Each structure stands twice: as structure tokens, then as C-alpha cells.
């Protein structure tokens, strides 16, 4: 029997998919051998290149890029000396949403240390009502900031006009 190792964030997303499909309240153990779910998620990730704009001297930005690559994403990392210019050009609606790096994937803005499972969920659901996701500031227990497993912070969704809502709570 061949075993496939899947990432923590993929397990979370698979659990969410399975829960919603089954209407269950308890967390199931993801069936890593289910080729339909795994290949669909792999296809979404492989077709979605993330472009990350970051400072050339920021270590946590480099760590977040490495984390995304380890999670299976194709990442194009672009060093830029004026991140505020990038954030304004891309249309980040409020300064309160800012973090150290800004990414774009399939037309969505990903601001800061957003976990891979939130990006996967965003790319799976493709909500038209939001412009992107943000982990404002630099949360200490976030991917790229001392932990690959998110803890003790919220990821926010935001609209074109800057309305926010909690997308995920860790």
C-alpha cells in the first residue's frame, strides 16, 4: 500500500470539504487515498501561480514564500523596495489591512502571512464578493513567522471598499 503525505493545511481543507459534503458536525479523518478530492485540490493549486511582492531584505517574507512552495504552490517572488506603492497599485483598500508582503493569485490580493489552507479555500470557492484576504500586521504564530501551524490570530476577508469579515480564526 502506498501512502501519500499531505500537508497540515491540506488536511484542514479536505476536512472542510468533507464536512460540508456530508453535513457532519464532527471532524472526519481526511481520506488521503480519495483521488478525486486530492487531485482536484492539486489541480487548483498547480494552476494558480502566486505572485509575491516583498522587500528584498525581509526574512519572514522569504520564509512565507518557502512555506507556500512547500505546500505545493508555484510562486513567483518579486523583490520591491517600495511596498506601499505595490499595495496602492493593487488596490489594498485600507492601511489597517497591511502586512509586510503582498501577493496576487487568480485576481485576489493575499496580504501578509495568510495560511495556505485559506488560500486553497479561496481558490476552491472563488467568492465574487471579496477582493482578498489579509493577516494584518505580522502575527507571531503564523507561517513565515516562527510557526508553520497558524495560532492565535485571525485572517480577514475584505471587499473592494474595505469592508472586512473574519475568514478564519486560529
The CATH topology turns out to be Glutaredoxin
Distance between the ends: 34 Å
Give the proportion of residues in helices. 25-40%
Major beta sheet summary: 7 strands, mixed
The mean pLDDT is 82
Tell me the structural class: alpha/beta
Weakly predicted, low-confidence segments: 1-6, 8-32
The CATH class is identified as Alpha Beta
Using only CA atoms, what is the Rg? 16 Å
* Helix-strand pattern: HHEHEHEEHEEE
- In the sheet with the most strands, the strands line up as 2-1-3-4-5-6-7
Binned strand content: 15-25%
Total count of helical runs of at least 4 residues: 5
- Work out the count of structural domains: 1
- The general outline is globular
| Named CATH architecture | 3-Layer(aba) Sandwich
How many extended strands?
7
**Which superfamily, in CATH terms, is the homologous superfamily?**
Glutaredoxin
What are its keywords?
single chain; 170 residues; alpha/beta; Glutaredoxin; 7-stranded mixed β-sheet; 34% helix; 21% strand; disordered N terminus
Structure overview:
This protein has 170 residues and is α/β, with parallel strands linked by helices. It has a single domain, classed as 3-Layer(aba) Sandwich (Glutaredoxin). 34% of the residues lie in helices and 21% in strands. It contains five helices and seven strands; from the N terminus they run H-H-E-H-E-H-E-E-H-E-E-E. A seven-stranded mixed β-sheet has the order 2-1-3-4-5-6-7, with helices on both faces. Helix 1 runs parallel beside helix 5. The longest helix has 15 residues. It is globular and about 30 Å long. The N terminus is likely disordered.
